[in-house]
Amino acid sequence: LSVLCLGDCQLHTSCGIQKCTTDFVSLTSHLNAALEDFDLEFCKALRAYSVCTYRNSKVCRGNLVYHSAVLGIGDLMTQRNCTKDGPTSSTNPEMAHDPCNYSGHTEVREHRGGGKPPLPTYLFCGLFGDPHLRTFKDHFQTCKVEGAWPLIDNNYLSVQVTNVPVVPGSSATATKKITIIFKSYQDCTDQKVYQAMTDDLPAAFVDGTTSGGDGNTRSLRIVEKVSGKYIEMHARYIGTTVYIRQLGHYLTLAIRMPQELVMAYEESQDLQLCVNGCPSSERIDQSGHLPLPVMGKLLPWGAAAHPLSGYTLETATTKCHEKMLVKDIYFYSCVFDLLTTGDANFTAAAHSAMQDVEALHPSKEHWHIFPRSGGGGVGRDGRFFVSLGFLCLIFVAYL
């Protein structure tokens, strides 16, 4: 904060503004603006900061740093829509950490010796379409994975998806069922199981509840955004957020989780698509090439004269471009899905998947994965090669 000073800016030794500011920084240094409870915790810290400055108003009345801090607090409270009345954070940062709030208790556990703790590292994984997988390592793959497969299986969370064939004669599949198990954790939550299927996207766990743990802490809860079409799950105790959508007849999933928890699994749990990607035998993309089933084009193995999906390369490109202006891997996945299935709902799935990336992926500079020519790869996994003008792809055979 530019209005604050942690150094000896003024020689008013009786003024406690430096202590107020130091406490505020300690209370907020672990917060992450991308997390769902950021505004709540930030406002609590601001109120505590304001109370501290008020207590020092008399001894600090001639201190410019004090007056700058008061103005800064007011500006920040306005920006964050904080009310003046409400709960405040403890003035002892060590006591302020909620054991059922991952962003707090982890740093306290690892940095009791003092000093500013590092911010936790978060990872993103997403699955959508026919199906396209973005792993925690930002590798992008297109896979078959028919039947039930584990996306995540660690000491805190299990996520399993069930995929079914999309169209006869194609090896592409899409997700029709998602099962999530939030494993019991201390006093924060009992084990909770969630299950979604096509045309059945509930806003509750299988036991009928919508939250886990103490009702006051809300350490785990489900939020329905669009009835039957879009839900969010917020697990504060493990710093994890999950989005599930139904678009057309199929489901999509996006998840953000702390790296240290992602990697907390046993050797027997190594089959996790989000961690290690799809087995090579399950990959539709061949050596990194995304094989678009383009009919009417002269491919190395030959092709039918008319597209079975009802889309040509040009019409599929136009359709995808309506929602996706940036020609990144999500755009090309949209084209792939339209040419494979003819189902326009996959356009919305690719678009929503990109929106989920923007909402959950921790690194903005890595939101988009762009195709590169000449063997550079797409996200170190896939390659598109350029030719033929406005879409410019060299294709390999689909089957």
From TrEMBL:
One of its GO terms (biological process) is regulation of primary metabolic process. Residues 15-84 form the Repulsive guidance molecule N-terminal domain. Its main location: membrane. It comes from Sylvia borin (Garden warbler). This is RGMB protein. The keyword Amino-acid biosynthesis does not apply. It holds the Pfam family RGM_C. Gene3D superfamilies: Mog1/PsbP, alpha/beta/alpha sandwich. Residues 122-362 form the Repulsive guidance molecule C-terminal domain. Keywords: Autocatalytic cleavage, Cell membrane, Disulfide bond, Glycoprotein, GPI-anchor, Lipoprotein, Membrane, Signal. GO terms for molecular function: coreceptor activity. Belongs to the repulsive guidance molecule (RGM) family. It is found in: Cell membrane. One of its GO terms (cellular component) is plasma membrane. It is a lipid-anchor; GPI-anchor.
